[in-house]
C-alpha cells in the first residue's frame, strides 16, 4: 500500500445513499452475459478501452511521477473502479499493479466480472452496490468512466467518490458532454442504428465540463486536466482536444 492510504483521514464522510438509477442498473444487468464479447452489445465499450487506458496511464504517471516504461505503475497502490460493469477496466487496473476494488449496481455484472477474473487469474475485490459499498475505505486512485450520466444525484455521487479518495490521491472521471453532437452521435445514430443498446443514454443527464467542474469544486476537488474523446470512422475513438462528444477529467483534492 502507498503512504497515502495510512495518512490521517480528513476527507468528508461518504453519503449513505445509493445514487445509482435502478432502471439503468437493470438495463446494464441485462447485458451482463454479453459484456466480454467484443462483437456483442458492449462492443462500443471494448472500442473505448484503448483511449481510456491511454488517458489513465498518462495521468497516473503525471500524478505520481512514474516511469512511463514501467509495466506496473500502480504497484503498491489501491484503486477503486466505481460502476465497473463486468470488469473491462478493473482487469487492466489490476494488471497495472493496483489492488483493485470494483463496484457495480447490477449484481449480474458483478457475477460476470467475478467469473471472468477467475478465468484469467486476477484477484479483484468485486462488490455489488454503489459508493456505500466501500464506506470507511480510502483509495489512492478512484476511477469512474461513463457512469455519472447514469446516476440520480451527480453531486451526491461525486461527494461519495471524494469521500473515499485517500489524501494525495487521484480521481479520474469520463462522461458524454451535453451537446448537439453527443445527441446525434450517441442517441440518434448510436442507439438508433443498434451500435449502442437502446435506452442506454438520457441526453438530459449529460454534464458539460463546466457543470462537472462545479460539482467537483463543491466537494473540495480541483480539476487538473480535461481531455476530449473523439470518434472518426477511420481512427475509431481517440483522445482529442475537442470535448464536444465526450471527455475525461482528472481531479485532486484542493
Automatic annotation (TrEMBL):
<dbReference type="GO" id="GO:0061542">
    <property type="term" value="F:3-demethylubiquinol 3-O-methyltransferase activity"/>
</dbReference>
<feature type="binding site">
    <location>
        <position position="145"/>
    </location>
    <ligand>
        <name>S-adenosyl-L-methionine</name>
    </ligand>
</feature>
<feature type="binding site">
    <location>
        <position position="104"/>
    </location>
    <ligand>
        <name>S-adenosyl-L-methionine</name>
    </ligand>
</feature>
<comment type="similarity">
    <text>Belongs to the methyltransferase superfamily. UbiG/COQ3 family.</text>
</comment>
<keyword id="KW-0808">Transferase</keyword>
<feature type="binding site">
    <location>
        <position position="83"/>
    </location>
    <ligand>
        <name>S-adenosyl-L-methionine</name>
    </ligand>
</feature>
<feature type="compositionally biased region" description="Low complexity">
    <location>
        <begin position="1"/>
        <end position="11"/>
    </location>
</feature>
<feature type="binding site">
    <location>
        <position position="52"/>
    </location>
    <ligand>
        <name>S-adenosyl-L-methionine</name>
    </ligand>
</feature>
<feature type="region of interest" description="Disordered">
    <location>
        <begin position="1"/>
        <end position="23"/>
    </location>
</feature>
<keyword id="KW-0489">Methyltransferase</keyword>
<dbReference type="GO" id="GO:0032259">
    <property type="term" value="P:methylation"/>
</dbReference>
<keyword id="KW-0949">S-adenosyl-L-methionine</keyword>
<dbReference type="InterPro" id="IPR029063">
    <property type="entry name" value="SAM-dependent_MTases_sf"/>
</dbReference>
<comment type="pathway">
    <text>Cofactor biosynthesis; ubiquinone biosynthesis.</text>
</comment>
<dbReference type="GO" id="GO:0102208">
    <property type="term" value="F:2-polyprenyl-6-hydroxyphenol methylase activity"/>
</dbReference>
<keyword id="KW-0831">Ubiquinone biosynthesis</keyword>
<dbReference type="Pfam" id="PF13489">
    <property type="entry name" value="Methyltransf_23"/>
</dbReference>
<comment type="function">
    <text>O-methyltransferase that catalyzes the 2 O-methylation steps in the ubiquinone biosynthetic pathway.</text>
</comment>
<protein>
    <recommendedName>
        <fullName>Ubiquinone biosynthesis O-methyltransferase</fullName>
        <ecNumber>2.1.1.222</ecNumber>
        <ecNumber>2.1.1.64</ecNumber>
    </recommendedName>
</protein>
<dbReference type="InterPro" id="IPR010233">
    <property type="entry name" value="UbiG_MeTrfase"/>
</dbReference>
